[in-house]
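User: Run a structure prediction on this.
Assistant: Running it now.
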Amino acid sequence: MSFSNPKTGEGVEIYRSDIYSDDTPIYILKGRTAEGEEFERMHHAWIIDLRNCSYAELMMLNQETGNTSFGDKQRADILFEETGVKSYFDKADYSTAIREVMEEYKNSGNWDACLSMDKWRQSLTDYTSVPVYFDRSIMGQNSMERNGVKSSCSFGTVRTAEELQKEINDRVKAAKKNGTTLRETLANAFQNTVNTFYSFVGSSVVMTFDEYVEAMEELLRRAD
């Protein structure tokens, strides 16, 4: 799947990753930003929230739920305009946008479009509303479960996401105070750290360990 924005110059291509499966729905996004910079990112479909997602994530949900027709893309394009965001990666409340567009269809008597939008909305909602449970076993094996399907994950998404992010932030602050590098601190603190994937709270973006360390270091620089 690919799409581009002639107004901004953005271009995005969506692929299933080599490790994609029902219990590991990781997608790869490639393309260029409005500034002309090329990028490649991994995203986990389970973590996408319709109430706070980007157009690119919405299109990943289309792919994941089998909504790949031209009409499905048109519906996503309509919502993109409705939210008023400028970039394919700007976050917006697409859940509310869907309801607002459906209300406009009702008021104008366009019932066919309203019913089609509602059927599409229900498909996305059925997927995103399934709870995802995070757990760290006594053996240190990290996992998450959705709809009875279990998958391994990084320490960044076990227990509650907020609790783990706080734990990471506390360790980062302690490392900075003690003079040890962030990479050393994280690598020594968690089992199998270097070989797992990472994600910030509320984000579907999946990173390697090195990418995660780089992102955390950038956050620390901004905080200073």
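Residues 111-128 form the longest helix (18 residues).
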